[in-house]
Amino acid sequence: MSARRPSMVDSRGRHTPDATGALAPSSESPAGSRFPSPITARRMALMQEPVLVLNATYEPINVTAVRRAMVLMLKGVAQAEELHNAEVHSAAHSHRVPSVIRLLAYRHIPQQSRALSRKNILLRDRNTCQFCGRIFPSSELTLDHVVPRSRGGRSSWENLVACCYRCNNSKGDRTPEEAGIKLARKPRPFTLHTSRQLMRLIGHRDERWRKYLFY
After folding, report:
1. Can you give the residue ranges of every domain in the chain?
2. Are the C-beta atoms of residues 70 and 95 closer than 8 Å to each other?
3. 102 in Cβ contact with 81 (< 8 Å)
4. Is the pLDDT of residue 22 over 70?
5. Less Cβ crowding at N or C end of the chain, within 10 Å?
6. pLDDT number for residue 50
7. Can you tell me whether residue 139 is helix, strand or coil?
8. How far apart are CA 107 and CA 78, in angstroms?
9. How far from chain centre, in Å, is Cα 57?
10. Does the pLDDT value for residue 31 go beyond 90?
11. 62 in helix, strand or coil?
């Protein structure tokens, strides 16, 4: 039997994120419900919001999720430079959600492509289904092989895209052409240059990022 993750409850009896930023089960979702309540869904979406990561020298080097950013802050690895108005609550404290964090120790960033992973594919594609164009939380996206593996398609930057479950089921074991759907953009490797392009795109939505980005 696996150990159950401890949860925290605030003064109003609400379940809140634990010290790692993980969301504990909420009583706001009906028992046996397959879907979270609107309040829980908003909290989950908030923890997936993008946060700009700066090196100790204030150079933008990465984009991460609020959940990971708060873990880095709690560990004393980073500090907040810009904050959202939103808050998350623990048993004893309220924490403002960061928009920009800065590492306290300088980190050398090699000039090479990022590791191929689900997280980086979703980041490259900005949590956007590459077939229907809709934005989803990470939990509602999967990875699709543009050329199916049954046809010899490889698990590579050029053949993997973010995809919602509906489009994934609709496409099935076919190419986009056979399924009558189109890719939003041609998939490419995720390099540091690509990452900085994404930072600028997101920066247009969050004005707190703009003074740290070079236009």
Report:
1. 46-111+192-212, 118-179
2. yes
3. yes
4. no
5. N
6. 86
7. helix
8. 12
9. 24
10. no
11. strand
Q: For residue 116, count other CB atoms closer than 10 A to its CB.
A: 13
Q: How far apart (Å, rounded) are the C-alpha atoms in residues 88 and 124?
A: 27
Give residues with Cβ within 8 angstroms of 121, minimum separation 6: 143, 157, 160, 161, 162, 190
Distance of CA 125 to the CA centre of its chain: 11
CA dist 86 and 46 (Å) reads: 9
Side chain identity at residue 208, one-letter code: R
pLDDT digits (tens, 9 = 90+) for 63-90: 888 999 999 999 999 999 999 888 887 7
Distance CA 85, CA 13 (A): 23
Please give the CATH number for the structural domain made up of 118-179: 1.10.30.50
CA 65/CA 1 separation, integer angstroms = 30
d(CA 171, CA 177): 10
Q: Which residues contact 156 (CB under 8 A, 6 or more apart)?
A: 116
Q: How far apart are CA 130 and CA 202, in angstroms?
A: 17
Q: What is the mean pLDDT of the chain?
A: 80
Q: What is the CA radius of gyration of the chain?
A: 19
pLDDT at position 32, please?
Answer: 52
pLDDT band at 11 (very low <50, low <70, confident <90, very high): very low
